[in-house]
Amino acid sequence: MPKYNFYDYSLEDLKNLLVSFGKEKFRAQQLFKWVYVDRITDFDLMTNIAKKTRDELKSLFHFTLPGVVQHLKSVDGTQKFLLDMGNGKTIECVLIPADNDRLTLCVSSEVGCNMACGFCYTGKTKLSKRLSTSEIVGQYLIAKEALPENVRITNIVFMGMGEPLDNPDNVFRAIDILHSEWGIKLSRKKITVSTSGLVPQIPLITKSGVRLAVSLNGSNDEVRSRVMPINKKYPIDVLLDACRAHCEETGDKVTLEYVLLKGVTDSLEQAHELYHLTKNVPCKINLIAYNEHPGSDYLRPSSSQVDRFQKELMKLGAHVLIRKTMGRDIFAACGQLTSLYKNRPERLEVHA
């Protein structure tokens, strides 16, 4: 079998690999166009490459993608894919439609996660694998194949299973592939990397040119440390300093994600704390009503309490949005993704 999985290589990596085998650099651009634009993986069909070269390339590259174990569709149009990562390990990625023709793919970066955030289903399982570049890019390619020919994925968010900054090499190589002008051509401003707060790695997001989102989920260190253990290592003031540095260098706003947990993070006093905490950070705040999953002690606040929390922040002058919950009935909403396990529930009865 050929040694190299084509999907593991950015354009620059591919150029270097081809040169090491005595091939011309420009072949990398040809191959990227065939594979990512024309979706051709049969070397015999790559007619602008000499037959001798095609035969040599066959011995070098294979085009292996994760297998699709399950494909679920929500009543709201959300689609969830359960993908096989080998050795009994699985991850999920989600296609999320919106009213404005936006179609967002939420991708995973790890099987399990060591961040152990209390509200997150993934965090119930320890990290068992950091995904390869091909396993990350493969989520895009698989989701794209499930769509009609004229429908395109407009945005990608690294908000699925795992902490992206705990797998930076493969995450940012995948971003290079997704952005490449010879391939998928997704604008870096249409790609968002979300972190639980691995502060030393945040400059990697700044350097990459993509959007930064931070999972804040607490208006003070006491609450955030209870909900997110990473806060004990990188407390809020250190995290927000890193956010300000990112904003100053890029001119972008950071998205601060705030999960509302009934009786834990959703009081109006905490809305005031949150405003004063973040008012000097160029940001927008995304409020996310907690999405339940098996084994969690947290509860989802009422819609009226979510609205009150937003209005309190708006009254103070914050730029704040409520993230519309999508895919909750198939466990595809924020905080509900997990690997396959025995007797795993696949459907949730959702009450308005």
Task: Report what the structure shows.
The protein is of the alpha/beta class and 352 residues long. It has ten helices and 14 strands. The chain has helices at residues 11-20, 26-37, 51-58, 133-145, 168-179, 202-208, 221-227, 236-250, 268-278, 303-316; strands at residues 4-5, 61-62, 67-73, 79-86, 89-97, 103-106, 110-111, 129-130, 155-158, 191-195, 211-215, 254-260, 283-289, 320-322. It has a ten-stranded mixed sheet with strand order 3-4-5-6-9-10-11-12-13-14, covered by helices on one side. It has a two-stranded parallel ribbon with strand order 1-2. It has a two-stranded antiparallel ribbon with strand order 7-8. α1 packs across α2 (26-37) and α9 packs parallel to α10. The N and C termini lie far apart (53 Å). The model has no long low-confidence stretch (mean pLDDT 94).
Shape: globular
CATH topology of the largest domain: TIM Barrel
* Average pLDDT over all residues: 94
Low-confidence stretches: none
The CATH architecture classification of the largest domain is Alpha-Beta Barrel
| Biggest sheet: strand arrangement | 3-4-5-6-9-10-11-12-13-14
CATH homologous superfamily identity of the largest domain? Aldolase class I
- The radius of gyration is 21 Å
Describe the biggest sheet? Answer: 10 strands, mixed
Portion in strands: 15-25%
